[in-house]
Amino acid sequence: MKTVTAIVAEDELVLRDELCGHLQALWPELTIAGLASNGIEALRLLERHRLDIAFLDIEMPGLSGLEVARQCQGHVVFVTAYDAHTRVVTRDGEALIRRSPKELQDELDPACFWPIHRSTIVNANAIAGVTRDIRGRVAVKLKSRAEKLPVSEAHEHLFKQM
Question: For labelling, which of 3, 56, 77, 155 has a CA lying 20 to 30 Å from the CA of 23?
Answer without folding.
Answer: 155
